[in-house]
Amino acid sequence: MNNGLITIPLSGRIDSTNAAETEKKLFEQLEGSGASPIVLDASHLSYISSAGLRVLLRVKKTHPDLTIRDVSSEVFEILEMTGFTEMMQVEKAYKAVSIEGCEEIGRGANGTVYRVDRDNVVKVYNNADALEDIQHEREMAKLALILGIPTAISYDVVKVGESYGSVFELLNANSFSKILATEPDKFDWCVKEFADMLKRIHGTVVPEGKLPNVKDEARGWARFMRDWLPEETHAKLTSLIEAVPDSDHMIHGDYHPKNIMLQDGEVLVIDMDTLSVGDPIFELCSVFNAFLGFSEYDHNVVKEFQGFDHDVSERFYYAALSRYLGTTSETKLREVTDKARVLGYTHLIGWKIRHGALETENGRAEVAFWKEQLLGLLTTVDTLVFQPNELEIEADKENLPEVLSFIEEHVEPLGLSEKGKMQLDLAAEEIFVNIANYAYAPEHGMAKILVETDETMNEAVITFSDEGRPFDPTKKADPSVSLSADERTPGGLGIFLTKKLMDGFSYEYRDGKNILKLTKKA
Amino acid sequence: MELNFESNNTAAVIGITGRLDTVTAPELEDYINARIIGIETLTLDCAGLEYISSAGLRVLLRAQKKMAACGKMKLINVSPIIMEIFEITGFSEILTIE
Description:
Chain A is of the alpha+beta class. Chain A has 17 helices and 20 strands. Chain A has four domains: 6-92, Transcription Regulator spoIIAA (2-Layer Sandwich), CATH 3.30.750; 103-171, 2-Layer Sandwich (Phosphorylase Kinase, domain 1); 184-380, Aminoglycoside 3'-phosphotransferase, Chain: A, domain 2 (Alpha-Beta Complex), CATH 3.90.1200; 390-521, Histidine kinase-like ATPase, C-terminal domain (Heat Shock Protein 90, 2-Layer Sandwich). In chain A, 43% of the residues lie in helices and 22% in strands. In chain A, strands 5-9-10-8-7-6 form a six-stranded mixed β-sheet, covered by helices on one side. In chain A, strand 13 (260-263) and strand 14 (266-269) form a beta hairpin. Chain B is 40% helix and 37% strand. Classes of the chains: A alpha+beta, B alpha/beta.
């Protein structure tokens, strides 16, 4: 007995063969204790059956303040499954793990990831009281996985020194940072996977209420800047953020090469604790910071953090953004980057100041540098919204004008001739109307239109996809164009024109989707 | 797309301005059908026609067939961009283009 608190050890197995006896012993020890708080020490408890659980319930009835401490993972699972973790305080036993001499393989906002052995990594949280954060990250990772984003989910919580860590199984995994630093020939591959995964995340719709709105966080960054910017400039910054429309699409929140892993040929995203929903510009700002913002004043910073040089970082950022936006247009890349920089610097300045930047000369110079950039941008940037190069729209003839103007806007950097524009319009119309008329009839469905332009190749590639019935228009027989008016039938002209007017016209059926690509050279 | 109509006894001219596409083609077809009764010579003035897709071509083909039964149809002021579409599809052979 200790300050009225009664601690009783449980050990071995508690099942139907010994539950009655265990109960008897327990209540003998509890005799005369009134309703004192009880702690059951489960460090030596290896198994508990339903007969044992009923004993716990009876103890709980007489002693409502019941804690079960140092519960092994196996027993915890039983308690969790049966809902006991909701009814009483259950504290898991945490194995102690040392990270001494372990390789650091990742680093996020809330912790650092180390490889502890060949198959396992541990993410050590910065704050000592991290159990809630760990639980939160686990929930986030589960949600992401269910929604189709490949990630690792922790299977155990351990104690690392004074901090907690969560353990993940990551076999033969390498971060993109390490690949970029050690295998320069994989640069292009990394760019492609990095950008495509980001698109996949941003293309993921999250059920309402599951994730926070990233705009609330951005509002926080802007609020901090109130004391550091002229009033008018600060008002503009705030209105720019407010004007970004809300979105139910997923944002990772800390998307950089240390958080992207390659495991046995599969690309995984880790560090899911910052998941939110919102407009992709709120992600691109942190991507900009990771590659360029952080190290813009001192180029060595990126080497220290990511392990690759600043020039690699710069090339990677622009190559990945180019793939993400589907354009090689420098004007367009600059335009989107400027929007990202507005939010990027806003976040960075606040973060740096809170981390004591103003106490050192270097820190003050860095903050002054970013602030100057931000002030400049706030005179030129009038919206943070950018047009993604993919449009998802109901396949309905009425939407044709919207589809055509979307395409026209995105092929603009190529400077197509009037004739080229009309030919592209014509082909796009034929394909979209075909989808609208036949893909889902008599039901309705969606079509996706992706526009990619390449200025070095001087061409635009428009990809149409739908989930309707499979149909390969490239195989459709050409109409005879030499018949008289009386003999001509009206069908088949559209596909025929598309073939004739485009420089490329291809079809594939993949993952339940009709995928049609039109290529037009400028 | 904008349409206008002028007629003189049995001759009529329909001016087509803008885009003749999936959305606007039915409009042109109804417009023609409502105005060709008693018309022997139908002229489509394409000076303002900027764009034509297969839906537009189909309307022209059906109008051509109708007019052939009671008179004739011709197109005037066809721009080179539109002419190329007529050529690729063989419409330059079946339509009367001046």
